[in-house]
Specification:
This protein is an alpha/beta fold and 242 residues long. Helix content is 30%, strand content 29%. The protein contains seven helices and ten strands. Helix 3 packs parallel to helix 5, helix 4 packs across helix 5 and helix 5 (149-161) packs parallel to helix 6 (179-194). The longest helix has 16 residues, at 179-194.
Length: 242
């Protein structure tokens, strides 16, 4: 099995609105190894979220090639892309995207309901395991609107994990959280990466990006730097652990 889970060649994305073209990504090429923790940084409007949408198969590039696990994604139809998104990829968003007035259990269960290969008999064990991994097993029957912001993001991570995906995409996962909750969420992502998950993080915060092991800097739709990060671990108050 190749160690490269993602290979991107000359990836370009152009949006057309009222005959006006906007170049969001410009001929980006890079690779991501299986098990890496990569942060994508850049100012607002730089193209970092567009890049994550391409990598997460939420949108298609205008030109260029994207190989996921050595498969050219251009050859995949919409149904095949949807299956990969549901089984190989987990998403965590800034706004949590939980269903309101719905239990924690039901929110985490949702991806399993779309997985035709999953037996309902195994759902409870998978859900409980996912919730336990983020320390939310004691909130199973709570409604999502009864949770704090940090708890909602933990549930969102559990939902992303329940299908045992290869890659976790996190788009500004600490953007709506206080600093303590933000560090706790990043520690969970670090733990998942330590367990072998590939984690790709989009952020504009330098402190958050420093939890990763590599940073791609995006400016005006182009990756301008690709730098390793000195591996660090952070306490709950944000202090760097020795």
């Amino acid at each position: 099995m190749s160690s490269k889970i993602i290979q991107v060649k000359n990836l370009t994305k152009t949006y057309v609105n009222d005959e006006v073209e906007t170049l969001a990504l410009r001929e980006n090429s890079f690779e991501i190894e299986r098990g890496e923790f990569v942060a994508i940084m850049g100012p607002s409007g730089s193209g970092k979220s567009t890049l994550m949408q391409m990598l997460g198969l939420l949108d298609r590039p205008t030109s260029g090639e994207y190989f996921l696990e050595n498969k050219n994604t251009e050859d995949l139809n919409d149904d095949e892309l949807a299956e990969i998104r549901n089984t190989k990829i987990g998403f965590v968003f800034q706004t949590f995207n939980l269903l309101p007035r719905t239990s924690v259990y039901e929110n985490v269960e949702l991806p399993l309901l779309y997985d035709k290969k999953t037996s309902n008999r195994n759902n409870r064990a998978k859900i409980n395991e996912a919730l336990k991994s983020v320390g939310m097993e004691h909130r199973t029957n709570y409604l999502s609107n009864q949770l704090s912001g940090g708890e909602k993001q933990r549930v969102a991570i559990a939902r992303a994990l329940v299908t045992d995906p290869e890659i976790i995409f996190a788009d500004e996962p600490t953007g709506n959280l206080d600093s303590k909750s933000g560090v706790q969420i990043m520690q969970i992502l670090q733990k998942l990466n330590d367990a072998g998950k590939t984690v790709i993080l989009v952020t504009h915060e330098t402190f958050t990006a420093q939890h990763a092991k590599r940073i791609l800097f995006v400016k005006d739709g182009k990756i301008t730097a690709d730098d390793p990060v000195k591996i660090r671990r952070f306490a709950e108050d944000g202090e760097i652990l020795k």
